[in-house]
Give the backbone structure.
Amino acid sequence: MMLLAANFGIMAVDARDSESKQRIFRVWAQAIVSPVQDASSRAGGATSGLVRKILNFSSTADENERLKQRLSETELELKNAREAAIENERLKGLLGLKEKTGYGSVSARGIARDASVWFNTVTINQGSSGGIALNMPVVTAGGIVGRVVAVSPLTAQVMLITDEKAAAGAVVGQLGETGAMGSVRGLGQSGLIEMRYVSGLQKVEVGDYVLTTGQDGIYPPSLNVGDVVMVNHGTATQPHQIFIRPSAQLDQLEEVAVLLYHPPQRPAPEQTLPNVDKGKSDKR
């Protein structure tokens, strides 16, 4: 029986198709195995494609990080270039102050600020060793900043023009061309300056510029104070109430210049009065 089964198996394996002469067993075997081979081939191709995609994704991610880093470096370079250009313009403006004012100056940088309820001051990195003295005016190319109120060998403290204790003689418009003269004082935390004692008969409008007069003995004449931003118009008997925005950017102080300015000495009053001499001559 076993020999019969073995013989039948050999005949089946060796059987051939009448037309193609191929062994029927091989054809059947290929038919059975073909789907498995196809699935395996597809799986291998998919795995290979997935690996390539993963490698490409990793390479793209690395390139993306390099581009991001380069972009950040470029943005930082542009920022530094802009800041350098702005600083250069400020320094050029400070250098031009000598021609504008006719006074020598010492350049300084703000290193600390006190904006408390009682004071509005800034500390600069120049002091008495650099020629700084009390009451010297401090300015930027835009306008007045304030005056020196304390000095050490290496630093000085500057009271800003917006401080409530600060004051200066001022005029609306060009000195000598208008009678709108008065004085300005700071308004503290508001960041504005008030101008007082300007006759209500004088023409003052929003947008007018305000200059120093030099009459306070601190600031030389014709320095920019600021622009008029609000006016409560007065009358023949009531002065204007004028509010000014400083032309110097006091909230963004970087470089400043301390003017080596000493106000001209005022002539001393005569020791004797004219009517006293006259009285003595009458007695004679």
